[in-house]
Amino acid sequence: MTPSAPAQKTADRLVNACIEIIDEVGWSHVELAAVTRACSVSTPAIYSHFTGKEELLQAALFEVSRRMQIEVSLRTHTALRTHTALRTHKALPTHTETDPKHLLLGAAEQIVDAAVSHPHLLEFLLFSPLSLDALRDTSSRASAFPFLAVVQDAIDLLLPQSTEKLRQQIFLAAWSAIQGYSQLVASGVVQHNPDFLTLTLNALLTMKEEE
After folding, report:
1. What's the pLDDT tens digit per position in 101-141?
2. Phi, psi of 95, rounded to the nearest 5 degrees
3. Range 119-122, long-range pairs (CB < 8 A, 24+ positions)
4. Tell me, what's the pLDDT at 105?
5. Once rounded to an integer, what is the mean pLDDT over residues 34-42?
6. What is the mean pLDDT of residues 165-187?
7. Per-residue model confidence (pLDDT) at position 194
8. Residues 6 or more apart from 78 whose CB is under 8 A from it?
9. CA distance 189 to 135
10. CA gap 109, 89 in Å, rounded
């Protein structure tokens, strides 16, 4: 059953409030009472929209990921190819300009920016149990974690002739490198160097398949 407009609006408000709290104090400190208080609804009312705290956090993770995906698209001026098109090698519409290397770098830059400006949100996006579950589940990665799919899509587009195993290995290597580098920048250990980031990603794209 499709939720009514007022119900959906309340659910969206709860998700937005949850995200604001995560941004301020971190995902592990989210309390349902604080979320509902920010939305001026009673705590029991939240169960009309979510089964509990975990489902609310799942909705918040999806929304944060979706926003990051949009930011990357705006940053790179690149339309994202759907997984269906990727898997079936269907041609994109003629008006769509796809620059996968620019897309991959844009995703990396977006993470670095978020590590500095929104560290709690990025921790939630990258290291919370829910995000790690999405990372493990490749079958539902695109639907559960849109931003994660941006990186996977870029790699798939860059290496269309490679095996699925190699693309997954490169995806994990790139994702790990971006995570680690963003944390070094955020902690002040290194200054962000776009050229270094580009060289690192380019090097990872030349990986050979493990035996």
Report:
1. 888 999 999 999 999 999 999 999 988 998 888 777 766 66
2. -85, -5
3. 119/186, 120/22, 120/23, 120/24, 120/25, 120/26, 120/27, 121/19, 121/22, 121/23, 121/64, 122/182, 122/186
4. 92
5. 93
6. 93
7. 92
8. 97, 98, 99, 102, 103, 106
9. 27
10. 28
Alpha-carbon span 49 to 51, nearest angstrom: 7
Residues 6+ apart with CB under 8 A from 105: 76, 194, 197, 198, 201
- On whether the CB atoms of residues 127 and 139 are closer than 8 A, the answer is no
Averaged over 176-186, what is the pLDDT?
A: 94
Place of tokens 């705290």: 53
CA distances, 171 to each of 20, 41, 92, 202 (Å)? 30, 42, 23, 12
| Residue 208: count of CB within 10 angstroms of its CB | 9
Categorize the per-residue pLDDT at 78 as very low, low, confident or very high, splitting at 50, 70 and 90.
Answer: very low
- pTM for the model stands at 0.81
Q: How many CA atoms lie within 13 A of 201 on its CB side?
A: 25
Tokens 């997984």 correspond to 83
For residues 109 and 73, is the Cβ–Cβ distance under 8 A? no
